[in-house]
Amino acid sequence: MSENILEFHNVCFRYDADENEAKLPFCVDDVSLTIQKGEFVAVLGANGSGKSTLAKLSNSILIPESGKVLVNGMDTADESRSYDIRCTVGAVFQNPDNQIVASIVEEDVAFGPENLGVPPEEIRTRVDDALRAVGMYDYRFHEPHKLSGGQKQRVAIAGMIAMRPECLVLDEPTAMLDPQGRAEVMATIRKLNREMGMTVVFITHFMEEAATADRVVVMDHAKILLDGTPQDVFQKADTLKRVGLDVPMAAQLASELRSQGVPIPKTVLTAEEFADSIHNLLEKKTHAHS
Ligand SMILES: Nc1ncnc2c1ncn2[C@@H]1O[C@H](COP(=O)(O)OP(=O)(O)O)[C@@H](O)[C@H]1O
Ligand SMILES: [Mg+2]
Fold first, then answer.
1. Helical (H) or strand (E) element with 171
2. Which residue out of 21, 53, 217, 225 has the highest number of ligand 1 atoms within 8 Å of its CB and is therefore the one to mutate?
3. For residue range 46-91, what is the model confidence (pLDDT) as tens digits?
4. Burial 17-48 (b: 16+ CB within 10 A, else e)
5. 227 C-alpha vs ligand 1 centroid, how far in Å?
6. What φ, ψ does residue 265 adopt, rounded to 5°?
7. Shortest CA distance to 58 belongs to which of 7, 4, 112, 3?
8. How far is the CA of 56 from the centre of ligand 1 (A)?
9. Domains of the chain
10. Does the first or last residue of the chain, that is N or C, have fewer Cβ atoms within 10 Å of its Cβ?
11. From atom 25 of ligand 1, which residue's Cα is the shortest distance away?
12. From the CA of 116, how far away is ligand 1's center (Å)?
């Protein structure tokens, strides 16, 4: 039986307005969502739809106004559990520069476990393991501010992994990176999920990145609009367009070719799948002529 690591039950949240002003509207409005251990879930949504707030509600940075968030069954509103909750769900944010605290890579990665009171010998192992997991071990003595954006973000992820969370929530970790940096970070996240079994909640505005998740959740105006496999969600091109989102480039191209009579399957979402389907078509054609 699968277990839920994260449960949102009818969660509402709004930020405080300045004194004497009317209350701000809910930016997470009656959201219910469960994430199972080991899942890789992408979260999409236009700017301001509530994604970052959802991320901050998932490890008690923010507490619901009503409803409940449970992390391994622990209520994030229960302050006595906040240490365990933050050890279970680690959060990585958009700007790696705001997440780097030390002047040497390995010291930066050690910062989190040191704060947790992990014994020094154990910290050594955790830091080395975490740096290897993100492919930054060879840079352990480097200065973080001299690294590329993708490398810095991988160091920030290593800092989270060194705390050995069961779940990583990543809030647009690739948004400020160049294509090379994005690819490095995506490969790292995928490896943590597939090889180390880490649960991943991955907020992004790149459709191509979301297409590789097990499941895609789409937020719109503080609510969950769609929740399903990438195939299910990206079939709904009109709904996505209405809320300011697109389908992945490869899916769009495939759909245009289908409308011209080229038989490309509707399941094609990524560039790789697209290339494979074209390859298959060409092979069939070669066989038909031989
Ligand atoms: N600290 C804050 N104080 C007041 N309003 C905020 C704050 N942070 C976000 N908001 C508002 O809450 C809504 C949701 O924001 P956010 O969760 O950051 O959305 P997203 O990450 O999808 O862009 C937006 O309308 C945003 O302006
Ligand atoms: Mg955001």
1. strand 167-171
2. 53
3. 999 999 999 999 999 999 999 999 999 999 999 999 989 999 999 9
4. eeeeeeeeebbbbebebebeebbbbbbbbeee
5. 21
6. -60, 150
7. 7
8. 11
9. 4-247 (3.40.50.300)
10. N
11. 48
12. 30
